Recover the amino acids of this structure.
C-alpha cells in the first residue's frame, strides 16, 4: 500500500516500510511506530496498550534513524534484546524515512500461508530407521569401547558397523551411561557402515523436519518418520526479506561481501532452528529427536541456505554451483537437530528452476510416464513444466511480485483486511475482504477477480486501458482509476484504487506465465487441448479463481475439470522425500529428465509474451 | 626444581609455577615474573631488556593474582593480547602464589624434542589423490552446474561422481571461476563417490599433516603426499599442561564441566592450527593445501582432541568411547586445513593404551608375525607390547613423570642447562649439561646415569638408600643427599641434589616398567632371553643410556645389540598412515590383535612391582 501522495501539513512527513509484510505508510514526524503500524492496518501485539511496559511490540530497525532509546525501552527489553537491536514500537518514532522489521512474535495475526496440498499414497521407506538396544554395561571382564559395544549389537541384528561424527559419538557415550545402556538409536544403514544419526530414549519415535523455503514464505512440517504423520506444522515469513524482496535483490545484497552473504544464511538458519524448537515444544518432544530433514527451495534459496556462492546465479548463463541432490550434515550449516542428522536437498533443475520445483513435480506425479500434464508453480518466479511422451520440459518466467501485492498502488499480501474479491452484481460493485475486516488494501486474488469483472463489464479494454467515462472510473492525477473502496483502510480513511499502472503490472505477470506455457507447448509440438492435467501450485495458485485466471488469459481456455489447484506441492514433495528414499530417487530422476528451456534466449518468447499481454 | 626451603627475609615469599615447563621458584614479593623466571633458569625473550616496550616477554596467568595492569603493558600488548589475558613478565609481579603460562613464542630456547625415529620403506598409497583438470567454462549452450561439470570430467577419467561438504563445494565454485576453470582437485576415490577434499592451483603438491599428540609434547610433520617427503617439522609443548600435568589431572579438570572440557580441546586445536600455519608459511604453501591428516595420541588425548567424553576413562574399568579407527572431517573439530580435509585417528587398544601405541607398533614392524619382540614406549604412562608366535600382548604402567624431571627435588625437563650425565671417573664426580650451559637442574637421563654410577660406587645400596658416611653425601634436613652440583642454577646459587626421595621416585618408575615387562613375558610363557628385539621408543627412551637403564634394572640384562632406540615411533607410524592406506589397515589389524592385559587387576603384578623396585 503506497501513500506517496499524502499531503504535507505542518510537521515533516516520514515514510515507514514494514518488513517482512511489504507495507508502506507515511506519517507525520513524531508518530510512534506503533501508531504508524495501526494506520497501515498492521496488528502489532501491544498487551500493555502502548505504554511501554510489556515489551511485546518490539521491532527492529533495518534502515534509517529512530528517536533515542528511552528508559522505558531499556527496562522493558533488557540487555539481550537491546543488544540485538530491538526497540519498542510504542516508544520509538522515526527521525528519517525508515525500514522496520516486525518479528513474527510481535504480530497479532499470522498471515494466511498455504500448507495443504495434494497427497498421494506411497510406502514408507525413510532413510533413517530406529533400532532399540539394551546393552550389558562394561566391566573388568568386558572392556569393549562404547562404539564397539553398540556396533556388535547391530552386527547381531544384521547391520554393518556404526560410523558417526564426533559430536554424535560423544552424545552416544554420554546417553548410554545416563540411560543405563538402554536407548533407541537412529541409523542410516549403508552397504559398509551404519551411519549413526541420533540417540533417543528407548522406543521414542524418530522425527523428521520437512521445509519449503520460499523467497517470501517458509513452511515447516514436523513429521513422525515411523508412520508418516504430520505432528504439527507452521508457516513463517522468510527473514531474508529484510535484505531484499526477491532473489535478484538478495543476490545483489550477498555480492556486497562475505559478511552480507553469511548474514542471509544465518538469519534463515536461525529461523529454521527457532521454528523447529517451537514445533517440538508444541508436541512435547526434544529437537534432537529430529534425525532427518528435507529442505526444498528455489536455486538461490538452496544456495544461500547451504552457504554456496550465488554471484554466478545473478548473471547469464545463471549456473548453479550444484544441481545434484545434496545430503549434508545438518550440523555443518548450523542446524540444531540431532548432531548426526542429515539435511537432504533434492536436485536443482537449473539456475531458475530449483529443488522446490523438483519436489512439486514429484508431488504432481510427473514420474508417471504416460501422462500429458502441465505444472504451473506461481510465485515471483513462476516455474512451469510440461510432461508429454515421457519427456519433461521446464522453464522459469519472471512473473514478478504483483500477485503478492507488490508494485500495486494499494496492493498487499493476503492478510486480514485485504480485498480478495471484487464482483459486479445487480448493477453494482461488491467487495469482500479476508476475515471480513475493514478493507486495508487489495491482494493478488482480489485484483485478478477485479480485472476479470472489469473486462466483463467493458470497464477495461483489450489493451488494459481503463475506459474513461465509465461511471465507476474516477480521475486520479489525470489518469483514470477504478475505485475498489471509497473508504479505504480503517484508520487511514483513504480510497483503494486500481490504476492503469496496476493493470499493466498484472498484464506483465500474466503475460509472462502464459508465454512460458506457450513456449513449452510449442517445444513439445502439442496444443493446449492435448494436455489432460493442468496442475496449479503455490499459495496464490490455490486461492485464485480459475475462471478469472482464464478470463484474463493467464491460463488457457480448457475445461475447468482439467485443472487441479494443489497448494504447496513443493512442501508435499519435501514430505514425501522425508518419508521415502524411493521418492528421493524418483525426484532425482525427474530433475535429470527435465529439459530446461532458457526463455531469455528463446527466439519466439518475446513475441509470445507481447501477444499474451493483451486481453481477449 | 623446588625452592620450598627458601628462607623468609623481610617481604612475603611468593611461589611461582611456570607452565608448561613444570618449574617452580620462590621469590620475595615485588619481584617481577621476568626476574623470577631468570632465577629459575628460564630464558624468556626480553628484547627491550625488560623495560616494558617490546611486549616479547608476554605470559599468561593461570592461577592466583598479579599486580594491576600498567600503562606500559596496555601499550605494549594491545587490546587483542590483553583480551586473551596476556601480561608482560617484566612489569607484572605476583600478589599471591601463582601459576604462569609461558607461551612458546616467549621462550628463547626451544626444548629438546624427539622427532627422529626408525623409518622403513613401503609403497606410497595415500588416501587422497590429485587430479588436474582444465574445464570449458559454462555458456548458454552448456548450462551444467559446477559440480556436474567436474564430476563428468572425473567420470571421463574413470572415477565415480564427486561428493563433498558444502564449504568445500563453495570453495570449488569460487576457485574454478577465479582460476579460469583450471585447477588440481584432491579426491578420496571411493566405490560410489569420489569425496572432494581439496582444490589447489594446477599441479601444486597435495600436503598432509601428521601429528603425535603426547600428554607433554606435540610433534608435527608437514608431508608432501605425492612423494612422501617431510617438508618441515616441529615440536611444541602441549598447551593442556596448564590444566593438568598428566592425563589423570586433565580428566579431573574436564570433569569440572562442559566448558572446562571444551577448553582443553580448544587450546589443543588452536595450537595445531597455529603450528600448521607456521609450518606452511615456512615452506611457502597455503594451509588449505593440507588435504589429509593423521593424529595419534594416548586414549585420553585422542578423546579430548575429538571432543569425546573422558569421565569414564578416569574410573575403572577405563572404557574408551571409541576404540575403532576414526576418519572425521577435520573441519568438524575446528581444524583449519582444506574444508574437505579428513583427520584420521587410528584405533585405540584400551583406555590406557592409545592410538599412539598402535602407531608405534606399526612403525616397530609388529605386523611381521614371525618376530619375537618387545616395544617399550616410555612416558608418564609407559605402554609395553610383546609379540610372540603371532600374538601381541599389551599393557600400560604408571611410570610417572619422574623421567621428565617432575617430583624430583631439582628435576627439570631435558632443556638447556639440565644435567644429563653424572659419572665417577678417576676418583671424582663429573657432570655434563645440555648445551654445556651452567647447571640449572637435573633431567631424566641425568638422574638415571647418576643412580647407575652411585650404585657402582656403592653410594646407594640395593634398597635405594644413600649410604651416609660416603664422602659425596651431605646431610640435608637430616637426610643424606648426593651433591650433583654445589653451585646450582646460574643465577640462583643453590645446590643441585639427589635425595633419598628422588631415588625412590626413580625406583617406582623403573619398577613399574620392569614389572610390566615381566607380566607380559609371563603371560606369553617366555623369558627375557627368548626376545630377539627390544625396541625402546619415546624421547626419553632415545636419549637414555642403555647400560644405565640395565644397571638400575629398568630393562633386563640382555645383549646390548638386541636393543634399538627408535625415538618417536608413534610419529613415524603416524606419517606412514598418512602416506598409505595399507599402513592404516595394518595398524587397524594390529590394534585388533593386541590383547590388553589390565595390570591393576593382574594378580602377580604387585609382587613383581615390589621385586622390581630393588636394585641388584
Amino acid at each position: 500500500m503506497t501513500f506517496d501522495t499524502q499531503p504535507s501539513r505542518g510537521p515533516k512527513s516520514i515514510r515507514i516500510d514494514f518488513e517482512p509484510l511489504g507495507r508502506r505508510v507515511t506519517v507525520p514526524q513524531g508518530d510512534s511506530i506503533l501508531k504508524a503500524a495501526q494506520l497501515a492496518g498492521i496488528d502489532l501485539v501491544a498487551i500493555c496498550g502502548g505504554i511501554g511496559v510489556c515489551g511485546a511490540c518490539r521491532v527492529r530497525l533495518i534502515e534509517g534513524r529512530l528517536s533515542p532509546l528511552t528508559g522505558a525501552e531499556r527496562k522493558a527489553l533488557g540487555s539481550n534484546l537491546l543488544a540485538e537491536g530491538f526497540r519498542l514500537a510504542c516508544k520509538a518514532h522515526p527521525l528519517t524515512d525508515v525500514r522496520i522489521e516486525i518479528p513474527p512474535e510481535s504480530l497479532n495475526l499470522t498471515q494466511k500461508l498455504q500448507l495443504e496440498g495434494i497427497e498421494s499414497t506411497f510406502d514408507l521407506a525413510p532413510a533413517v530407521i530406529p533400532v532399540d538396544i539394551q546393552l550389558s554395561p562394561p566391566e573388568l571382564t568386558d572392556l569393549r569401547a562404547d562404539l564397539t559395544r553398540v556396533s556388535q549389537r547391530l552386527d547381531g541384528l544384521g547391520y554393518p558397523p556404526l560410523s558417526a561424527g564426533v559430536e554424535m559419538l560423544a552424545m552416544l557415550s554420554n546417553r548410554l551411561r545416563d540411560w543405563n545402556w538402554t536407548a533407541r538409536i537412529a541409523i542410516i544403514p549403508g552397504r559398509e557402515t551404519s551411519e549413526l544419526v541420533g540417540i533417543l530414549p528407548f522406543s521414542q519415535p524418530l522425527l523428521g523436519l520437512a521445509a519449503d523455503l520460499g523467497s517470501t514464505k517458509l513452511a515447516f512440517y514436523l513429521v513422525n518418520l515411523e508412520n508418516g504423520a504430520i505432528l504439527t506444522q507452521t508457516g513463517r515469513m522468510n527473514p531474508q526479506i529484510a535484505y531484499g524482496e526477491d532473489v535478484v535483490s538478495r543476490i545483489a545484497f550477498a555480492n556486497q561481501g562475505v559478511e552480507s552473504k553469511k548474514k542471509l544464511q544465518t538469519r534463515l538458519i536461525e529461523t529454521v532452528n527457532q521454528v523447529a524448537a517451537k514445533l517440538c515444544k508444541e508436541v512435547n518432544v526434544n529437537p534432537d529427536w529430529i534425525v532427518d530433514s528435507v529442505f526444498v527451495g528455489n536455486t538461490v534459496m538452496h544456495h544461500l541456505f547451504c552457504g554456496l556462492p550465488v554471484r554466478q546465479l545473478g548473471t547469464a548463463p545463471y549456473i548453479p554451483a550444484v544441481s545434484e541432490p545434496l545430503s549434508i550434515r545438518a550440523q555443518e550449516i548450523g542446524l540444531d537437530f540431532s548432531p548426526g542428522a542429515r539435511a537432504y536437498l533434492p536436485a536443482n533443475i537449473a539456475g531458475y528452476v530449483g529443488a522446490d520445483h523438483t519436489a512439486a513435480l514429484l508431488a504432481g506425479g510427473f514420474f508417471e510416464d504416460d501422462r500429458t500434464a502441465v505444472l504451473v508453480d506461481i510465485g515471483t518466479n513462476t516455474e512451469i513444466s510440461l510432461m508429454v511422451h515421457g519427456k519433461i520440459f521446464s522453464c522459469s518466467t519472471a512473473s514478478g511480485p504483483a500477485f503478492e501485492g507488490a508494485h500495486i498502488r494499494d496492493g498487499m499480501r493476503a492478510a486480514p483486511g485485504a480485498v480478495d474479491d471484487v464482483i459486479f452484481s445487480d448493477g453494482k460493485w461488491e467487495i469482500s475482504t479476508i476475515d471480513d475486516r475493514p478493507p486495508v488494501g487489495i491482494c493478488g486474488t482480489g485484483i485478478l477477480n477485479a480485472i476479470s469483472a472489469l473486462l466483463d463489464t467493458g470497464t477495461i479494454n483489450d489493451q488494459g486501458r481503463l475506459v474513461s467515462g465509465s461511471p465507476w472510473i474516477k480521475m486520479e492525477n489525470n489518469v483514470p482509476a477504478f475505485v475498489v473502496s471509497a473508504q479505504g483502510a480503517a484508520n487511514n480513511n483513504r480510497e483503494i484504487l486500481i490504476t492503469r499502472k496496476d493493470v499493466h503490472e498484472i498484464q506483465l505477470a500474466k503475460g509472462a506465465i502464459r508465454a512460458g506455457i506457450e513456449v513449452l507447448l510449442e517445444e513439445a509440438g502439442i496444443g493446449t487441448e492435448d494436455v489432460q492435467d493442468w496442475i496449479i501450485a503455490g499459495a496464490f495458485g490455490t486461492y485464485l479463481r480459475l475462471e478469472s485466471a482464464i478470463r484474463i488469459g493467464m491460463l488457457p481456455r480448457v475445461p475447468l475439470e482439467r485443472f487441479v489447484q494443489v497448494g504447496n506441492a513443493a512442501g508435499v514433495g519435501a514430505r514425501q522425500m522425508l518419508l521415502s528414499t524411493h521418492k528421493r530417487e524418483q525426484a532425482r530422476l525427474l530433475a535429470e529428465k527435465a529439459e530446461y528451456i532458457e526463455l531469455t534466449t528463446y527466439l519466439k518468447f518475446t513475441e509470445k509474451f507481447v501477444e499474451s499481454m493483451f486481453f481477449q
